[in-house]
Write the structure tokens for this entry.
Amino acid sequence: MNKAILGGMVIVAILVLVLLLALTSSTDLQKKDVVFHATLADPKLYQNGVFTDTFEADAGTYHFRFVPNGSSPETLSITLAGSSMEFSQDFVLVGTKAETAEYYTWKYDGRDTITVPETQEITIAINPNGNILGSVSVDILGD
């Protein structure tokens, strides 16, 4: 077999593999739809120290995802209220020191799964417990 033909077949095989991986990744992203997102990095976003918003959610299971850092609020109190569901949780910021370097990784500990029994509008209240200067992003992802 000619080296040029063999090389062309290898390139085609690699392109097919990359395409399959891209399709798999986009399918995974579709499974985790973002139904709510807020980046809280400006004190003007809070009214009386609490950020509030509303969003529509279908029946199903949802998960919180946070993007915190060292300046994020130590406790982030989140309340969700809809026509047939309520949820309230205090998420506590935990820093873990990296073993090989002088830096920390940050995450919020708390119950991060909620169930919405039916399609409804949900009101979310995020209370940083006085730390309106610390930044954090909050997402709610559907399965």
Notes: Residues 3-31 form the longest helix (29 residues). The CA atoms of residues 52 and 125 lie 4 Å apart.
